[in-house]
Design a protein that fits this description.
This protein is α/β, with parallel strands linked by helices and 361 residues long. Helices cover 47% and strands 10% of the residues. The protein contains 13 helices and six strands. Strand 2 (47-52), helix 4 (76-87) and strand 3 (92-97) form a beta-alpha-beta unit. It is an enzyme of class 6 (ligase).
Length: 361
């Protein structure tokens, strides 16, 4: 850490005093956040607060250098702050494991800081911090990465353009594997899972060929890919039941009960997220039996209740399985998703809806 004398030599007396007394907020403690926190601490800033929602994953360790294997599953913000305290034991540094969009972090809360630094990979959260800083009259250093490219912008209300002054370029949207596999938070996450993972693995397409679920560089997701492939192999083993009356049930129990129980066994993941709910096959079968919903009718995929989604899942899973069995007999082929294929579309709608109910989306 820089001494007071060194700071004075570098910045001059007035700027050195401001560095040592300024209150800083760093939003995000991942790849950019770790670098920022280290640099700020070593540059002589004494009062730093970090906010990050996530916990540490094995796949983070190749680029988020404040973390080690022993830190896996611990909150990113807490471990990062402890690391910079080790660099400078006298620093006034604090961590919060939370979503920066929570009501607790209002305009008055932002106004207590002299500078906010964004280190986020979430566009919606970046926009939110931009809005709050403008309202609180606090300057914002906005940063981000896209592949090997990085960008940084200083935003100060009334003096510079803000984060939303120019529309952001629209790119082909991809989604991190960990979000799709374990922590979906939006309907699109459930749709990608249903179409590009579940349908593909059950009915013949290869996950490795799908770019939508390999968002971010593959090197950053090796552990997630490994776990996802293990789950894919478990789904592949369900092929023994393909075409049998039990097929829908064994698939349902695997993805909506067993896999959810595994996620629930990791309580740290749900400290600041809504916990998922296991679904029960027999309960839903009973509920759907009393419904007048007809899964064989066209355009059934809008506004599905839980019982209706279950009924549609059973119906389409059975039809697709029979089609695949017939296809294998004739050509040893597989099924590919086609938006004009009613069975495929309804299967994705049903399973995405069921997953949305599981995660409270």
């Amino acid at each position: 850490m820089r001494t007071t004398e060194q700071l004075t030599r570098i910045f001059g007396t007035e700027a050195a005093a401001r560095v040592s007394t300024a209150r800083l907020l760093v939003v995000g403690a991942g790849g950019i956040g770790c670098e920022l926190l280290k640099d700020l601490c070593m540059a002589g800033f004494q009062h730093i607060e970090a906010v990050d929602l996530d916990t540490i994953d094995l796949s983070n360790l190749n680029r988020q250098f404040l973390f080690q294997r022993r830190h896996i599953k611990r909150p990113k913000s807490e471990v990062a702050i402890q690391a910079i305290r080790d660099f400078n034991p006298g620093i006034d540094a604090h961590a919060r494991q939370a979503n920066i969009k929570e009501a607790t972090f209002d305009v008055d809360w932002f106004a207590q800081f002299d500078l906010v630094l964004n280190a986020l990979d979430n566009l919606e959260a970046r926009r939110h911090v931009n809005t709050m800083c403008l309202a609180a009259h606090v300057p914002l250093v906005e940063s981000g990465t896209a592949g090997y490219l990085g960008q940084v912008t200083v935003i100060r209300g009334g003096e510079t353009e803000c984060f939303e002054c120019h529309p952001k370029p629209i790119e082909r949207k991809t989604y991190p594997i960990c979000t799709i596999r374990s922590t979906p938070s939006a309907p699109i996450h459930c749709i990608v899972w249903a179409k590009n993972y579940l349908f593909a693995q059950l009915f013949g397409e290869r996950l490795e060929e799908d770019e939508d679920m390999t968002a971010e560089a593959d090197a950053d997701n090796l552990e997630e890919l490994k776990q996802l492939r293990e789950e894919s192999m478990a789904l592949a083993r369900l092929a023994d039941a393909m075409g049998s009356p039990e097929f829908a049930r064994v698939v349902f129990d695997k993805v909506f009960s067993f896999d959810i129980a595994r996620l629930l066994s990791m309580p740290d993941m749900w400290k600041h997220r809504q916990m998922p709910t296991q679904l029960d096959y027999e309960e839903l079968e009973s509920a759907s039996a009393g419904s007048d919903f007809d899964p064989s009718s066209p355009n059934t995929h809008s506004h599905l209740s839980l019982a209706d989604a279950f009924a549609l899942f059973k119906f389409t899973a059975g039809r697709l399985a029979q089609r695949l069995v017939s296809s294998e007999r004739e050509t040893r082929g597989s099924l590919s998703f086609d938006k004009d294929d009613e069975d495929a579309l309804n299967f994705v709608a049903a399973t995405a809806s069921l997953r949305s109910y599981v995660f409270g989306i």
